[in-house]
Design a protein that fits this description.
The chain is mainly beta. The chain contains no helices and 5 strands. The chain has a 5-stranded antiparallel sheet, with no helix packed on it.
Length: about 60
Amino acid sequence: MKQNVRINGNPYRVVGRLPLSPVSRACYGKYRFTLRRTTDGTLWSAFGTRISPVSELVRQRA
């Protein structure tokens, strides 16, 4: 899964996708995406069914 996407004007590469836990109905069909910002190499997470140019990102801790 080597997909490039631009979110909020910054280029990212999707490096992983894991399904969220099916504990509640709110999580069915949703994923945790791991993205790497191509300009500085930092890792970010996004949650949802897909990635879009307006996806909300959360920075991962090292």
